[in-house]
Amino acid sequence: MMHNVEAYTRRDPQQIIDVRFLYELLNRKLSGLAITTFALPDLATATMDKIAPHSAWPQIGRQDVTAAIYELIELTSDSEGVYRASWHAFTQAWELIEAVNSYLEANKLLFPPADVYGDGEGGVRIEWQRGQRELRLQIPGVPEKGGYLYYQEGTDHGIEEPLKVSTILRRLSWLEQA
Amino acid sequence: MIPRKRIPWSGKTTLSNEERVARAVLYSRFLKRGKIKSGVFLRKDKDDDGLTVTNPEACTSEELCATFSECHGVVSLLVGAIREVGDGIDVRPDLDPSIHICDHANIIGLPYQSQDKDTAEYLAGLLSEAARIDWSRETSV
Fold first, then answer.
1. What does the alpha-carbon distance between residue A141 and residue A133 come to, in Å, rounded to a whole number?
2. Which chain B positions have a beta carbon within 8 Å of A81's beta carbon?
3. In this complex, do B121 and A159 lie within 8 Å of one another by their Cβ atoms?
4. Which pTM does this prediction carry?
5. Pairwise CA distance, residues B76 & B67, whole Å
6. Could you tell me the sign of the dihedral formed by the alpha carbons of B15, B25, A91, A158, in that order?
7. pLDDT tier at B100 (50, 70, 90 boundaries)?
């Protein structure tokens, strides 16, 4: 999917700030994830597909976290309509992915493949499934609402809240043991 | 929207377990790798009357999708399967012909995600598993 930044900037000047912020955030975060960073291209020709580091994807072991980040970045696009993520949800989701991945990398573990999508209220959902075990991370669109981690195996299910990196890591470990 | 000159749900106030109901999927990420995400069946605060479903006998999937500005597919499930997921979960047909050209009904009895997130997530997952993809824009092009 390609999103023309020039079209954003022409339509809404505020989007320029969003795009610059996104670049800064991306390079800072990607650097933190030890993934190739990108120079800020000319905004007149910049497109979202250049922001997302397709060329970095083939790095063995990093595809799944990069794919999750790419899907998260796409959630900030106008094309997501009512499913577009709020900045609150976007940044919180990013922080959680980064923190989880940092721990996993430090322990030579891989970020599990995840599905990332909007909840229709500005929030972000990140879901993992392995065998009969399933995790659904709900990150709210506004800070007033609390996020949670839903887990399920067969008819056994429950909620972990409030959201903590340690809880997500514990449940990801549980997922991997499926 | 132009109402059809037909009686919605053939005038039935209760649907049989063997009947199917359809739900339009308005978000591309709800259908991924042939799977239906639980988000399709999560009841939000805006879903006052329940989750909207329609009558697959009244419209084809393409016709149903065409009634929305953005639609990525149509899923359907048996009324009996909906009832099986929990006590009080049912489908309530709407007999007002002006509501939707494809007949309108609501899946009722589901908790709001904001009120009972555990049960809402669990039931949404069960409904996703019970549903099948009747039509997807991705596979039709």
1. 26
2. 27, 70
3. yes
4. 0.82
5. 17
6. positive
7. confident
